[in-house]
Amino acid sequence: MTPSRNISRLIEIMAALRTPVTGCPWDLEQNFSTIAPYTLEEAYEVADAIAKNDFLELREELGDLLLQVVYHARMAEEDEHFDFGDVVEGITKKLIRRHPHVFGDENGEKAEHVKGIWERIKAEERAEKQAEREARGLAEPSKGYLDDVPTAFPALQEADKLQRRASKVGFDWNDARLVLDKIREETHELDAELAKGDPDKDRMSDELGDTLFALANLARHLDIDPEEALRRTNRKFRTRFAAIEDVASRTGTTLQDMTLEEMEAAWQEAKQRQS
């Protein structure tokens, strides 16, 4: 079998990998649950390539992510749920339907017009999806108000989405300073737990989680993406720690042999250069 630019070749390869007896033993053992973590990992690697502005890497990572879609579609086809063609048809139908200002005669000259169109169409789609489930005899799962927020999101992103959703019905602080007070309250409770002679690990985990949740809430009130804010700090940490490595290299020593004071001095020097 030879490589190809045609998507059908990728589908053929996946089918071959999943063919009993002649296929790949590892691929044959997989199911939706075991592949899902790889799907998330590949999505993050796509985002990482974009952040690094590395288009050679982005090309490769997009291929890896596409493989995940083909993988899930193949397993669904084996179970007679749907196939890759159904996935493509579904998304093309959705895009055409949600852009009548492009493919139809709706007025979409302004962003607010487009948003209104999308909200109306998504409501229609939800009604149609429910009707389809009923036609197939599938019970509609009972849903709470927050159930539309996927639990598979990274925890920080999930916290942000949960709070945004709750705020739509008025469950929210009306002042960012009140959120700061909440953060102080949570850190005080964490400090009180740490002060105990034998702190409870589960209790500390709860208090730390409450603090992180409150910090995500503050980011939302400040109109700051908490994921991006943390990534910015991660990048600063990488740069400043690299400066410590540079000092170790220039002085003929190793990180393990450097004292904490020497590391801190290199860190502060790098911090000054960044400011």
Brief digest:
The protein is mainly α and 275 residues long.
Task: Kindly list the characteristics that best describe this protein.
single chain; about 280 residues; mainly alpha; 12 helices; extended
Structure annotation, total helices: 12
Helical fraction equals over 70%
What is the tally of beta strands? 0
What is the strand content? under 5%
What is the overall silhouette? extended
Structural class from helices and strands?
mainly alpha
What low-confidence regions span 5 or more consecutive residues with pLDDT below 50? none
How would you characterize the overall build of this protein?
The protein has about 280 residues and is mostly helical. Helix content is about 70%, strand content about 0%. The chain contains twelve helices and no strands. It has helices at about 5-15, 25-30, 30-50, 55-80, 85-100, 100-105, 110-135, 155-165, 175-195, 200-220, 225-250, 260-275. It is extended. The N and C termini lie far apart (about 55 Å). The model has no long low-confidence stretch (mean pLDDT about 90).
Could you give the topology of this structure?
Elements: H1 7-17, H2 25-29, H3 32-51, H4 55-78, H5 84-98, H6 100-103, H7 111-135, H8 155-167, H9 176-194, H10 201-221, H11 226-250, H12 260-274
